[in-house]
Amino acid sequence: MANNEVSTLKKGLLVLELVKQYRGITLREVMNQLNLSKSTAFRLLTTLEEMKYIYKIQTQYFINHKMFCDNFEKRSDKDWASLHSIHQAAQNLQMSTYLGKVDGTDLVMTQVLHAPFKKSADEEIGNRSKLHQSALGKVILAHLDEELLAPLFSKMSLEPATENTFQDTQLFHYHLKAIRQEGYAFDDEERIVGIRCVAVPVFRHKKVIAALAIAAPAEQISRGNIKYIAQKLNIGSEAITKEIEALETIH
To answer: To the nearest 10°, the Cα dihedral for 243, 216, 186, 227?
Structure first.
């Protein structure tokens, strides 16, 4: 060790670098990676958390990008690509996972993950479709307050993407009510022939702000397993909400 080297500081910086490398790392993993005792690893992680360089969700620690990026404050707090819980949801679901939000009468993809669910499919982020054509768009519409839904609906035209797309306005209204009661939406090859999709809403302060979904070939999503998929999606949606709220309270 160099004469001027401060061992505790070096360990802290090594922990910080390690947390930065991972999309969620546990105390045990830090101990193993850096050959630290439990008490030392815990003290270093706790200190970094108190100084707001990292934050904790359940048992995992994440880097707080706000401390390292001057432009972070200018970005939306719904910068989905930076949220770790979406990757965890995709790992849990083991199917292509999507997050989308409303822009006018369009559904815009803000995060897309395919197996092995470690990197964003950046080429698909920003893709657009009409809100009524997919489970993602339908579940957001179904959970909007009426004062937001009515003016939006007046601007929508129900053009079909496939022969299964809803085109009858009155029937679509009834369909949205059923989705709200069920808490999830099902897209039965309504946007892409051969692909089915299940989606649930993502909330912030009890207001719908996005939708989380999986999509797969039709034979992988049967009417018998839709509710099970929706339950797992809801776990992911709740984790996303908790992460957003955690980030809001860091500063």
So the answer is: -70
8-42 burial code (b ≥16 CB/10 A, e <16): eeebbeebbebbeebbbbbbebbbeeeebeeebbe
Residues 6+ apart with CB under 8 A from 25: 18, 19, 33, 60, 61
In tens, the pLDDT along 86-111 reads: 888 899 999 999 999 988 888 999 99
Maximal C-alpha separation, the chain: 78
pTM of the model: 0.69
Cβ atoms of 113 and 96 within 8 Å: the answer is yes
> Treating both helix axes as pointing N-terminal to C-terminal, what angle do 135-143 and 169-182 enclose, rounded to 10 degrees?
80
Higher pLDDT, 126 or 31: 31
φ, ψ for residue 106, nearest 5 deg: -105, 155
- Over residues 130-170, the pLDDT tens digits come to 999 999 999 999 999 888 888 888 888 888 889 999 998 88
Cβ atoms of 78 and 210 within 8 Å: the answer is yes
Token pair listed for 174 = 């009834």
Digit-coded pLDDT (tens) for 53-97? 888 877 888 877 666 654 433 344 346 667 788 888 899 999 999
